[in-house]
Melanoma inhibitory activity protein 3 (Gigaspora margarita), 597 residues
Amino acid sequence: MRDVCNGRVIISHGGGKSCRRQNGSFGLFASQLLTDASVCSLIKNYINKQPLAMIVGNKKNAEFRVPARYCVMGLYYITHAWPEYELNENDDDLTDEEDILNGNNTERNKSKTKREGPFIRWKFRFEWVPDQEFSPWWESPSQKLIYSTILPGTLKVFLCPECVAPSSKIYKTVWICLNHKCNRFWQAWSDKNQWIKVPNNLVYDPVFLNPGLTARDQLHRIPFSILPPQPPSTLNNDLTNSNALYGVQYWKGFHCLRCGRISCRNKWAFWECANCGLRHEVPEQLLAPSMLRNPNLPVLIGPAFDYDSCIKDNSGIIKTSEVSAEGAVVCKYCFPEGGYIIHRIGNSSINKISDQFFIKFQRKDLPFKRNILKKGSNRIGTPLIARQFTMNVGAKYKFSLECDTLRFEETPQIIQDCYNYVQEMCNVLVDGAKFNEMLLAAYLNDQRMSWHDDGEKGVGPIIGNLSLGASAELKFRRKKKKISKNLSDKDCSTDDLSVGPSDHSNSSKDVAEERLSLPYTIFTSPSPYMPIDALELGLKSRGTGPELILKIHHGDLLMMVGHEIQQNYEHALFPEGFRIAATVRYIALDDENLKST
């Protein structure tokens, strides 16, 4: 594919539509289009003359040594973009690139259609932006550079006799028409003024491989810094501002000024350079729940009440509610396929215990850390870590993270107290509920949990969750393959709660979610001269929209009861700020799993 990486100049291609050949190399199974996401984004950078940051991996065929798995090279301009024909090879079996990246390189993922071509691949030339904040790390200060100073316009341009479109002389021996709409695209114009076949052994013109082809109007000061800001060493004096401790800057990378390494923050108490071990301590500040609550919401001192819950029309979900003796509101949501959700909403008096949990969980001596994601780490050759800080206590919970499991007796007392409290409250709501594991997760500002279910193998039918800190929106939607054909197949028992009026409020959220379920959206043209076709956006929804939306506040207890919930639905969480969740489960031990099989 004639990719080049000499540091100052990089020639590469847009991604997508690639397959692995039988000989292990990659080839296209279809032409790359200007509308493809990976190509379109680079074309926009090229047209708008916007620099972009380049990262190189040590598996790239570069002309220099890459000292780490990935290294930031700096800012680059795209000076040239052009299409090339990639000639086909006789390969019957091709494995999709996406399956290979995801580790699904199996027989059933191989393409069944013989590859036909040739296909178009879009190529791009990137050039190092001069006068950056740092010198190229791949060049020795004593190295004598062979690059010559090239004035813009030195690269020769050829006008195609067929389409009269200009094409730069990119290749050493021939001019080639690079207009993919021309009938003579990817044909060479010979010295005898006739079209010939493009040679197989194409090499780039040496002028094209040297720096200096950046346009003069782009040779100005870089528009932004790519160096991450240093973590704050002192806190904002405004103690009501949670961004002073749990803002985005507190979970971004740490740029070590001693060795230059950029490291993720994976420790709760400090940043640590993964190369030289330099530490930057996290200032400790304990936030009270009152600092995170919505000031527009009332402080509940009497019986609590449910607000902001939303059930989608025709979902088949039935809601009942009652008020407990201590003033908590207990709502029950019965699902048509079986199973139900309990949402206990407390008032300021009930939540005093939760207040203490939240404050003490912020201590820096707790074993929170950002754990490694199992999926994705292998395909890029370096660990990927989750955004949230987590810790698992009790039985080993096998899920998407490589999370160490601590015994209850080796954890601080506050963790054991929280586990006992959640278990006791869950037993009040569902008689006989038992647990042997607790997962604590800390969400910093602007973090969320995407769509998933908790139906991992060995997990019991009852899951309890205590919410601490900022409020969050919890959404439930049916899985695509589990849309119920007859929502009245199963009756929902309401023996546990007194039957009250069903709350199926048709709020603005219902209308918004219904609109999102449309297969596409057409926007009206703002100008009579703009064709409406250009404004038709294929905004496909991910399913039919959430069936249930709950607003979870500090001190609220949520229970999911029944395997049917996990089998038929998935949920996503959208916190409004710093939040800690304590989730309890019963995890079957290995011998229990053997007995059930």
